[in-house]
Amino acid sequence: AQSVTQPDIHITVSEGASLELRCNYSYGATPYLFWYVQSPGQGLQLLLKYFSGDTLVQGIKGFEAEFKRSQSSFNLRKPSVHWSDAAEYFCAVGEGGSYIPTFGRGTSLIVHP
Amino acid sequence: EAGVTQSPTHLIKTRGQQVTLRCSPISGHTSVYWYQQALGLGLQFLLWYDEGEERNRGNFPPRFSGRQFPNYSSELNVNALELEDSALYLCASSLVNNEQFFGPGTRLTVL
């Protein structure tokens, strides 16, 4: 069965600093990978996705993620964090066929001014 | 284009009561998914409906049930509410086997 691990429960960064959120997955074949963001009291918004092709994926709001098969990772990055990026971030892995993604438990991003 | 909508936004129930949550998918989407997001537990998959049929179910007791209507909107029913059912219930819609788009959720509090 597929699984997703987000090893960091909380991450604190200063505004303007770079960001990397970690995501590791367990899945036998090539997975579908996603990053979602959830602002307080809101639903989830898709930041980016990887299905196939170029392993460096560009998303909205200046985020990018890199699929590394050898490390079973799909880490999310942003070169310069803004205060509005403070939110909960979820990594998810899905598969083709009967597609239902499995979500990680989330990483809470705190941004200091 | 309107996104996924859910109603109500919030509700408070007492143990043993029953509740119905509603979800309207994005126009053209035939699949609806329900998730439970309890504090500190991430998103737990509840149910998947497509074309009016239940396609998959997560590891939840039978008192969690639902249905999908011909217009693809969906209801989630929870019977015999327990305290641990307190959570944010998220609905998502998609074209089959494609990325999910989430609604804002319904916050359920069970007292």
Q: Overview of this structure, please?
A:
- By secondary structure, chain A is mainly beta.
- Chain A contains no helices and 12 strands.
- The mean pLDDT of chain A is 91.
- With 111 residues, chain B is mainly β.
- Helix content of chain B is 0%, strand content 54%.
- Chain B contains no helices and 11 strands.
- In chain B, strands 2, 4, 5, 6, 9, 10 and 11 form a 7-stranded mixed beta sheet that branches.
- The radius of gyration of chain B is 13 Å and the shape is globular.
- In chain B, 36% of the residues are buried.
- The mean pLDDT of chain B is 94.
- Chains A and B meet through strand 6 and strand 11 of A and strand 5 and strand 10 of B.
Please sum up the structure shown.
The complex is a heterodimer of chains A (113) and B (111). By secondary structure, chain A is an all-beta fold.
